[in-house]
Amino acid sequence: xxxxxxxxxxxxxxxxxxxxxxxxxxxxxxxxxxxxxxxxxxxxxxxxxxxxxxxxxxxxxxxxxxxxxxxxxxxxxxxxxxxxxxxxxxxxxxxxxxxxxxxxxxxxxxxxxxxxxxxxxxxxxxxxxxxxxxxxxxxxxxxxxxxxxxxxxxxxxxxxxxxxxxxxxxxxxxxxxxxxxxxxxxxxxxxxxxxxxxxxxxxxxxxxxxxxxxxxxxxxxxxxxxxxxxxxxxxxxxxxxxxxxxxxxxxxxxxxxxxxxxxxxxxxxxxxxxxxxxxxxxx
Length: 283
Hints:
This protein is an alpha+beta fold. The chain is built from seven helices and seven strands.
């Protein structure tokens, strides 16, 4: 009969960013390794803690499993030397150790999931405006640069619209900042409900907003803004009961146009026309 192998030694090592399991049996030895997943761009020590805990839990589970295997392999010898009762006690002890290891691994997995959710929330806080929930200026500038690069590579047009709430300063000065904040929040909701889900809306600063419309020609962009203006004409707010005047500038990439600068200039010109004529029709 072939000689049965038994586990005589188990050691867990951490070397060069990976766990090594050194397993020695009567028939020889083996080394197993587990490399924790490394996410690109994650370098903070806190992000590695749950992964390390998970690895430790898995190592303990492996240790418990190894000892159970050893007990099974050497069961005849244990039964002969200590009797059936001692053998059952040993199996129960090992089962408890193995179960505890699995629980620890489960807790570590839960911590990893919680960390991933916390990281997602932090990422959202980093790219969102805290008042309106729209994207912030920094993230818009990053997205705008990527869209310009994509348009230059593929020739696909895109459009930018800049919007300025004309009466915001007056509302802030007469009714207070809380009223102004409430108005901006409701205005942001109006923008979201009036535009396509693929359009990127950001608060550019103060009472200025910007819309990036991917794969959108000048005709389609002006059609989308005309729809928004119809919704704006029907919209009422307690701090702007008579309606809200919004200056709008729009520009479309044509291979050479500095889209954002042109849209900003068009918005400023529209604002000047409104101050002179009082018109609510965008130029």
